[in-house]
Amino acid sequence: MAKITFACLDQLILQDTTVHPKPISEVVPSWFKNIPTNLKQEHQFEYTSKVKTVRQCPSFVDIFKYGYVLLAPTDIVLQYDKETQDFGWEIPYHWKTNNAEKPITIHGNTQFVDHLPSNSNYNFVFKINLPFCVYTPKDYLCLQLPYPYSFNDDWTSIYGKFETSKVHEVNVQIVHTSKNKEIVIKKGTPLSIYIPVKNNQLDMEVVDFSKRKDLQKKYNKYSFTMSSKFRNAYRDL
User: Fold this and answer.
1) Where are the domains of the chain?
2) How many CA atoms lie within 13 A of 223 on its CB side?
3) 5-198 — its CATH code?
4) 78 with 176: CB under 8 angstroms?
5) Quick one: average pLDDT of 90-102?
6) How many helices and strands (H and E) does the chain possess?
7) Sign of torsion, CA 126 129 135 138?
8) At a CB cut-off of 8 Å and minimum separation 6, what does 1 contact?
9) Alpha carbon of 202 to those of 23, 129, 138, 197, 206: distances in Å?
């Protein structure tokens, strides 16, 4: 079976398993877990009185099944003043990195932020050089995505693609988006997720559905499976 490996570079952080990368299935927000599977509505019969919630929708549920969460190894303070363009950062413990001189570096605004649309809320980009290296098989790479449903006005991570079979440093680009000059990311906070995917590109085509019996057959089978059960139909796919 293909495997993703995170190698820890710092001995103290190696001992603190609470901040190690984790499968996203182990870092599901409590509010999502607390959504009931069904809601009861007024009805004279029991079985059909229940309304499905997003906990029965695969697009919501399965987002917490794929990928690995990168966590803040310590508290992190990020500072940026839009008027003076001064920036800074602080951490209580300087963890060991592989090639970076510092645990936190930057991407200056001339590199990215100055070129964004006027309605962007991106203020400044910090790069968190985490104390890990990552390794995937040669036919895999990793997509970097923001942790889903963060509901966070202060910062976000940037989308990225990393050739993790060749480049092994783990760093996350964190964008300061806050109206406050100083933000705090607490130890153990999900920073981003890495999703391993096959390192190839699919050919694309657009076809006439009415002339493709093979596609119609697949679609009809899917539609019947989803519409023939009241609950959890997607589990039969």
Assistant:
1) 5-198
2) 6
3) 2.70.40.10
4) yes
5) 91
6) 4, 15
7) positive
8) none
9) 26, 32, 18, 12, 13
Other C-beta atoms lying within 10 Å of the C-beta of residue 230 = 11
With 70 as the cut, is the pLDDT of residue 48 above it? no
Residues counted in the chain: 237
SS3 at position 54: helix
* pLDDT for 98: 84
- Name residue 204's beta-bridge partners: none
Supply the DSSP string of 105-160, one letter for each residue.
Answer: EEE-GGGTGGGS-TT----EEEEEEEEEEEE--TTEEEEEEPPTT---SSEEEPPE
- The residues, ordered by sequence, that sit 6+ positions from 165 with a Cβ below 8 Å of its Cβ are 135, 136, 137, 138, 139, 140, 141, 199
Cα torsion 125, 95, 7, 3: sign: negative
Maximum alpha-carbon separation in the chain: 68
Name the one residue in this structure whose structure tokens are 């995937």.
136
For residue 47, pLDDT over 80 is answered with no
